[in-house]
Automatic annotation (TrEMBL):
Gene3D superfamilies: Vaccinia Virus protein VP39 (3.40.50.150). Keywords: Polyamine biosynthesis. It comes from Brevibacterium celere. One of its GO terms (biological process) is polyamine biosynthetic process. This is Spermidine synthase. It holds the Pfam family Spermine_synth. InterPro entries: SAM-dependent_MTases_sf. It comes from the Bacteria.
Length: 241
């Protein structure tokens, strides 16, 4: 079930709820506005990791395509594909949010774990996993095979980004990081300190690449919420792996 909620006091801001979970926050007149904190962090990580210019990006989990709108606005000429399991949701998002058309932004209905295998080796700059079944990540997007497919499709300078929900026990985070280390030379994360310390639930952004990952601590600390960057050593120490 999808529900579009108008934000009180805002002329053209909406929150898209999918199966009762807030999944996208969209301001039609301002694609640079990312009200969900983890999406703001992702945008800052992307801008720190890549020089100015277009990107070839795949978003696994489309919802309202908030981050795709940001990339389209800040990096003209980018080619993006947003994959979602629900074709009806894609149709609604296209009409509700006036999304860019293909090839700027192609919408593809399908299972992200299957669709990532259709992209050529070394063809992508960016793969973003932000897909949920209610409030958990679908199992097919947490396997060794899925991460290997992402690594195969990404260029050597490419970046994998994932929104990892963390209830405080770090179980999903620990499992993802462990498998990503087998496929990528560099793995890091960003989140609020209280979440990383297991004091409350929230979102952790995980990043992986064959190339060194930019230290984004300073740009994250200028965000609306003060997030912290954990390099490979700090992340491993925190997770005990």
């Amino acid at each position: 079930m999808a529900r579009l909620e108008k934000v009180d006091g805002e002329a053209d801001s909406y929150v898209l709820h999918v199966n009762g979970v807030p999944s996208s926050s969209i301001t039609l007149s301002d694609p640079l506005r990312l009200d969900f904190e983890y999406l703001d962090w992702m945008s800052r990580i992307i801008d720190a990791q890549f020089a100015a210019g277009p990107l070839r990006a795949v978003h696994i989990g489309a919802a309202g395509c908030a981050l795709a709108r940001y990339v389209h606005a800040t990096r003209p000429g980018s080619r993006q594909t947003a994959v979602d399991i629900d074709p009806v949701l894609l149709e609604h998002s296209r009409s509700w949010f006036d999304l860019p058309r293909s090839p700027a932004l192609a919408l593809r209905a399908g299972d992200g774990a299957v669709e990532i295998e259709t992209f050529r080796e070394d063809s992508l700059d960016l793969v973003i996993r932000d897909a949920f079944d209610h409030d958990i990540v679908p199992e097919a997007l947490t396997t060794r095979e899925f991460f290997a497919s992402c690594a195969r499709a990404l260029k050597g300078t490419g970046l994998y980004l994932a929104n990892v929900p963390d209830p405080g026990d770090h179980a999903r985070l620990r499992a993802d990081v462990g498998l990503l280390r087998e496929e990528f030379a560099h793995v890091a994360a960003a989140s609020e300190p209280a979440i990383i310390k297991g004091r409350r639930r929230g979102n952790v952004v995980v990043m992986a690449s064959q190339s060194p990952i930019a230290d984004v601590d300073q740009v994250l600390r200028t965000a609306a919420t003060l997030a912290s960057f954990l390099d490979a050593r700090a992340l491993g120490s925190r997770l005990g792996i």
